[in-house]
Every structure is written in structure tokens, then in C-alpha cells.
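Input record (one chain):
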Amino acid sequence: MIDLHDRIAALSPDQRAALAERLAQRNVHADQLDLLLKQRKSHYPLSFAQQRMWLLEQLQGPSPTYLILTALDWRGPLDHEALHASLETLVARHVGLRTRFTLDADGAPRQEILDDLHYHLERQDFSQDAASCSAVDRHMANEAARGFDLTQGPPFKILLYRLGDDRWRLLFKVHHIIFDGWSEGILLAELTRSYAATIAGRRLTLPDPTIQYGQYAEWERHQRRQGRFENALTYWRGQLADVAPLALPHDGLRRPRPTRPGRTYAFTLAPHLTRDLNTFAQTQGATLFMVLLAGFKALLARVGGGDDIAVGTPIANRRRADCESVIGLFVNTLVLRTRLDERATFRELVARVRQTTLAGLNHGAVPFDHLVEALRPQRDPSRSPFFDVFFALQSMPIEPFHLEGVQLTPREVEPDTTANDLTLLLHPIGEGVRVRCKYDADLFSQSRIDQMMHHYRHLLEQAVRNPEIALSSLPLPGGAESVIRGDTWTGADGQSPQPVHRDFEARVRSTPDHPAVCTERETWSYTHLNAEADRIADRIRQAGIRPEARVAVCMPRCPHLVASVLGILKAGACYLPIDPEQPPSRRTAILAESGAVLALVDDEARISHPGAAHFQVMVVQAGPEPAQSQAAPANCVLPIHGDQLAYTIFTSGSTGRPRGVMITHQALARQVAWTRRTLGVGPDDRMLQQVPTSFDPSLIDLFVPLTSGATIVLARAGGQRDLQYLKGILASQRISLVQITPSAISILLELNAFHQQPRLRALIAGGEPLPPSVVNGVQRQSRGRIAMFNCYGPTEATITATFWRCPRTEPVSRTFIGVPVDGMQALILDASLQPVPRGAGGELYLAGPQLMRGYLNAPARTADRLRPHPFSKQPGARMYRTGDRARLSPDGHLNFLGRLDRQAKIRGFRIETGEVERAIQDAVPVRGCRVLVRGEGQSAQLTAFLATAGKPPDIAELRHRLGERLPTYMIPTSFAFLDTLPTLPSGKVDESALPSTAGVPEFRLQPPGSTLERQVAAIWKKHLGLEEIGVNANFFDCGGHSLLLVRIQKELQDLHGREIPLIHLFERPTIQALCQYLERKPETPTAPPSLDRRVAHQRGRRAQRQARARIPAR
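The corresponding structure, as predicted from the sequence alone:
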């Protein structure tokens, strides 16, 4: 055979010019012709796609992540010698099938051509096995689980299985680093044609490939050196600036080192729908791909992915005609980003997707891996750069293979791993479209994917039928699942419950001498408390106070406070709590803002006159205690209707001014009655009142016991901040019920407060997110004896709107806010007030009889927060916009996702700070934790404040533990350790009181200290071209990239005489963190290995594997 290069070299100058002209007509230019004239070499650099895939292989070790598997069932006679000869011909024609990957002297990877390779066909005979097909499937699965050692030989293998007489199966196993989907067609076509020619006794004559893959890799790098990618890079810099990962709802936790177990859900779009989609695409000047992608992006947005959707998609990238017949990795990835507008129609979305797709194709020459290197997105080993979701439409029909007397049937080999979070593969089959959704089973449940694909099909049907409807209005089946209702409940007589003070009076009649309220020094019976309340109510009426007029109470925790609250309600007035521990200025501001006409105090010095006319101050003093068993006096009876105001409570406002929330008697009575029933409160119970009166749960501490015949135990003033005191009073006062924040429970766990509390039977947690570690700690310490309830509810929904019964004995990995309380409704809606599908995130709205009347003197804010209920048939029904994000779990529980205003976006990544806080609490024992975003734009960073008992944890160890739970970009930049976190009177963390700076900023230059740090710093400076570098400087922020990291790895291995897996360098991108790892004693000493030495395969490991659509490397 005459070598093509020899033939070209023998051409005259005129002949070369003529050849160049003809090649130019086929889009092959002179600089490419020069490449053809170069002498073929035994080794070449890697292409950009190969380089990234090789690096990922170094991070993971040999694995099946990027194997491509294809099977062919063969029925009919098979000539083994002819098949072997055909394989030899195939391998001889395509050097990629005889390539291995080694390192050059500088530690850079290269591809090396093996010229004298003879291919060996591996054969397995299962014809004697009764279940031959099952046995072959098992063998294929085992084969699919083993990766290639890229350094030892070509990552290409064909296995021939014998199933029976004239029944065979061929398995093609090849690494993606030398192969793509187009290559599969070349391989199968040439193999079958060569086999047919061989058995026919003739020689197959095919034109030699004009170039080989290594020459393409050199040409690609030449293009970069010549600046041919710069225009495209300018486009992509603008297109991908600040692109953020999708916020898709997950059922599992994202692991820093994902194992990517893959599952597949498949279905077919019906022929009539496919025809409608094609017709619609033609009318829009679009393609089927664009319409299907637009529908998929609309779906992702509706299920919670956000309004800025970026997905990856493959293109064949064989732009040069001389590449069309070459086996190799040519496929490139485009990132198609679309910003969605909820008011846009599907027709408008298709137009945007069309524009983005065409622009991406016009700038698609730049290799994706060069794009990553040039744009330097934030690094995260658990995610792909720029996208988590992949979308591919295989539009090229698969040509049938014909051999005379043989029936060939392609067989799908379904991988059990996946390379992305979610991959949608579509293939036109007949008149329909086959859809296969590959998903990471660690992140998504089967039920969630089933639902998503059901919604995808439904959305396409609705969109193509009504393309002018706004995307947000396209109905999705099952949206009603995100509207959940508590049990319907009324009073025993079928009516709404009566006001709480009436229930209390009923208890006075039934248990007059039972202790109603006590302190460590005194106890009041129900009769005594009622008498005091009636006396105060009478004084209020005599002062001319009208119904619903606000009457303030400002006094420390004492029985008179309880009597005052009851007296206000009995008099028909509106209770206004003012905490005496609040600053005087705030007390005065609340009095002025509320328009209070009377203040009940134990000391006139408690308050300053707000300056309003007719304002009065009344000092409450004790009256004579009724005699034991004395008949209860006649109660103050005034008609009170359910819509009348019971109390107004002021909460912190976003503007810095407190805002008053007005709650009715009906709302309070329903909440108290529900709590009483749920906890099963009775006369034997003793409930600790330690919540500040300015916090609405304090009303539960008062009225749940008083309407149940139980006893209120008042903690001393300020006692809620002394956890040692609380531990003691739980035991000494035989407390059975207590409301308390998770932060306080965490400290009580440190004090072993729940170990021996025979009377304590229930904890009501609220006010802040409940960490799983707190639930598990109470389980262990109480041995399952103490019940725990996680209660959620804004003040505007009357204390508790939803609740979750925590498991008593089964450890939990996540917590919930549960289900609505009786009569209430929870709705999870998108920005257009449409219900999101089950499992998708959205804003939580609440509806029902416990909603506030409104904000005091703030009609605009009331209208903003209390919206008309779009799904209620009741006239005038409203729902409350909480500002919280939530989703509905598969088992019907609400999962709290955090405040909408606590979502942060740092260097393109959307971060929920609550998730970081939970990870810290799981990683180290802390009393409390708060993570804030400090700075803006590119200077934004996470700062963690930790309240610790005793010696703070080692920061390096904390970072290491967080690295096992969180991706790198979610690990705080700096940490501050405090004795306690500052709190508001409600017990919630006071973020404004946290220090303005925390810890040592990472960007501050810290010179190397130890000998090892100086050695590593010297290596870094050499490769990064820097004169100075701090031990806390981030390698990638200093201009480093993965290939440089490989060279650093080689030097470090030579220096230390042991193997250092690349993943450890990638996960520790600072000198300080890397040296802490290097200082650890290796498990087994090893001689200095070559970087490319790897084990042949790994067993027992669930690893990633490439989907059949030939998804490009991450």
C-alpha cells in the first residue's frame, strides 16, 4: 500500500496548488494541507477533549465512567477467521484503536501509537449454559464495571460470546478518550463491510483516512496558538458570565466525591405529538431539537431550577471533511443558556432557544475543554463546569447492517452509572421520539424522575397546543399536591372554639384549687388567678377602655403578668406585650406605633410616656387571695366574637422599624386548642414558661396549660439565657412540657439535661431550623422517652402553622416542618402563584383561620403579604406569603429550604446558607452556628460564626470534615468562634450583633512556615510563574489549571517517594491544606511511582459511566 503522505510529497508545486484548491472547496485550507504533509509520528499531544477526560481519569483512577459499550446480537453462521481478519484491518486503518497514553519528560500526557499491535479477539462460550443469555448478561455487567489502564495498551476490546448454535453476541468496549458516537457508526460499518468482503473471498478497498486523530489534536492546538478561538471565546465569556448551577430539588445529598449510580426512565412521545412538534418547529423556522429543548427548559424552570437555565448539548464537531472517516474523540459540547421570563409564551421561548442554539453553533469551534480553561469557572469536583443537565437529540438514523444469511440486531447496553445529574437522550424512532432520562440515583428518586418525565410530556402537549399561553400558566398535572391541608376541625359542638379566657374560666369551675401558675416562691390556684384577672378586667373597663383598644403589659415574668393578660382579654381589649428587657427606646417606639391607651406595669419606671393623649399607666398590685375552695366569683362576661382582636405583637421589620401583627380571638383559640389536643395536655402536666413575652409562642406557654387544667411554671426573669438554670428547673419543678429553640436544646444536650428527666415528656422546638443532630441527640439521651415536635409558623399565622413529629428512636438525616395544623393550608407556589410539582421548591404560602387580620397601620405591607387566595372558593379568602422556600417530600411532609432572602450567589453558585450551617453542625459539636455572606460581587464570601463550648475545633480539621459533606465553593472562607451567638428577645440569632469581620481572610498573604510548606511553595511558584505565594492562596485563583496540577503532582511524588492521588491535590487547593495532608503518615510506603501507574480495575465500586449518547467529558 502506498502511503498517502508519500503520494502527497511526490506532487509537483502545480499539483499541490491544484490539490489545495480542491481541498479548499471541501473546507480544507492550506494550513491544514501543511499538516497533512508532515511526517507521521509515533506520539502526539492530547486534544483538549482527551486532555480533560485523561485528567478526570487521574482523579478517579481506572473506572468505567467513560466506557462506551455497544452490543450486537448475531444470528447465523460466523467465520471466526474472517471476523479476526476484519478486526485486524480495522485496527490497522485507525491508529486511535492502537493508542496508549503516557507522560513525556515534562510530565505532560501524550498519546503514543503502537504500530506492531496485533489484535486478540476474546471469546467466551456459554452455549452449554441453560440460561445462556442471563449468564452473558452477568459477564457483560462484570466487563462493564472494569475500566482500562490507559498506560498499558489501547483502551479497546471486543468480546465474542457464543449463546448456542449460530447464536452469538459481540460486545464492543472502548474508552471515550479514543471514540465517540460518530466513531461507532464508522466502526460497525467498516467491520461488517470488511467481514462481508473477506467471506466472499475478496479484499475490501477503502480509501485511507486523510489524516489520523493525533494530527487533528496537533491542528487543534495550532488553532489556539494562532488565536483562532478568540472571537468565539469573547462570545462565550459574555454568554456564560455568572452562570449558576440549576437549583433542582434533590431527594438525596450531593456528595463531594459523587459515585454517580445511574438509573434510566424511558418512554416514547406519541406519533401525533411528534408530528405536531415538527409542524410547530417548521412554522417557527426552528428544528425539532430546538422545540424539545425549549420544552425541557420550561420544565426545569417549573420544577424549581430557576429562571436562568444552562444545559450542555453535544455536536459532532467534524467540521473538517478529512475528519469524517476517522475514529476518534471529536464530539464537542455547547453550553446553551436561556433566561426565562415567566410572562413569555412558549412561542417566544422557542425563538430564544433558536437564537441561542444558532449562536452557539456559530461559535462552537472552540473546544469545550479550552473554554473551561480560558473562562476558569468555580471549581467543584462534584459538578460539571457550567451545567449539571445534559440534553442530546440523536438525529442521525442508525443504518441497518446487512450480512447475507445473518441477522444482526443492535442491543442496548444500559450503563448503571451516569456522568451528569440529569441527562435527557432523545432519538427519533419511526414516527415517534424515544426519550431516555438518565439520572443520578444518589440525587433523585425514581418517583421524582417519573413525575418529571410525565410533566415533560404533558407540557409539550399543552405548549404545542397553546403556544401563546404564558409559560407560568401552562398547567402541570399533580400541582395540587403542593397544596396540602391540615385536618378539618371545629369545636365539640361543631362550632369554632370559644375564646381562650372562656376555656380558662371553665377550668376554674372544674378545678378551682388546682395550681394554675407557680414560681419558685409562690403558687396561685385557678381561683386565685381568675379573681386577679377579673379585678384587672374591671379596672380596665372603669378606665374607659373600649373593645380592641390596645393595652400594653410590661412587667417581668410573674403571676401578675398572667393575670394581666387574662384581664385584658376578659375586658374585650387587645393585649400588647412589651418585654421589659428590651431597650427603653424600643419600648417607647412600640407604645407610640401601637397607639396603646393603657399600660399595665409592676413599676411605673418600666415605661416612658409615648406622648399620646389619653394614655394611662396602671400599676398592678396583688389583691387578697381567695379562701381555699371558695366559690369562684362571677366572671366578667362580655360578648367576644371570633374576629375580634385578641393581641397585637410587634416583630422585627426589614426596614429596622418594628411592625405590629394583629391576631384575632378565633386564630388564638384554634391554635391553643390544636396544641392542647396534639400534646394531650391534662391536669397532671406542668409547662415551663420561659419564652419572652414579646415572642408569640409565649401565649402557648400561658393558654395551653390554663385551658387544660395544667400548671404554668414561670422561669425567673432572664432564666431563658441560663441553660444551667433551665436544666435545674426541669428537674426541680417536675416539668413535663417545654417550648425551646434548637440552639438551647443543643446546649442542654451538652449538659446531659435529658438523661434523667422522668417527668419531661415533650419538647416543642421552634423559632429556627432544627438540625438532625439535635433530634438524634435527644433520642439518644432520653432513650426515646421524650417526644419532640418541630413547629414552624410565622407570627402572621398565629404561632404554629405546620408541625412534624420527630421520630423517637430512628436516627434522622434531615428534618421537616411537617404538615399543616388543623384547619390550615400550606401552598408551595412559583413566582406566578402556580402550584409547583411535588418535590419542587417554591415559596411557601399559608392560608386558613389562623392568619392575622393584618399589619397595624401598614395597609400596603398587608396587601403585599396577604394575597387573594387563587384556589379558594370562599369569597375574600386570603393567603400569607411567608418569604420562605419549601418543597413537599415524597411522603407528604414539608421540607424547609430557608429564607428567600438568605439565598446567596457567590462566583456563580447559588448557595443556601442554612445548608452550610447544617453541615457545620453535623461536622463538629457546636452550640449554634450562623453563616453570613460578607461582601458583594466578586468580593462576596461566606463567613461562619460558631458558638462552641470549650476549645474551638481546629480549622483545618473542620475544613476537612466539611469537604466530606460540601462542595468546595460552599465551605466558608473564614470562621469566628464565640462563646454564644447574640440573640434577639425571641431567642433567634441577632445577625446585626455579630462581629463585622471574622477569622483571617483567605486572600491575605501568609508566608510559608515549615520546611514542607517552603518546598511546596517553591514548586508552586515555579509552575505558576510567581515570585511570592501565600500558604492560603488558592491554586486555581492564582492561574493554575488541572494540567499544571498534574506536573506538580509528579514533582511532589518524586520528592516524597510515594504516590499522591491527584484528587487530594484537587480537593486541597492551598499549600496549607495540602501540606497538612502530606504530613499524614501514608498507609503503606511505596517506591516513587510513575504518575501513570494505575491498578488495572476496581471492584465493588459504583462509579460513573458514559451514557450511550457519548456525553463529553465533564
